[in-house]
Amino acid sequence: MSLSIRLTRGGAKKRPYYRIVVANSRSPRDGRFIEKIGSYNPLLAKDSPDRVKLDGDRARHWLSVGAQPTDRVARFLDAAGVRERAARSNPKKAEPGDNAKERAEARAKKLADREALAAEVPDEPIQTLVAEEIEAELTAEAEALADEPPAEIADEPAPEVTDEATPADEASNEGESASAPAEGGEEQTDA
Question: Is the pLDDT confidence value at 115 over 70?
Answer without folding.
Answer: yes
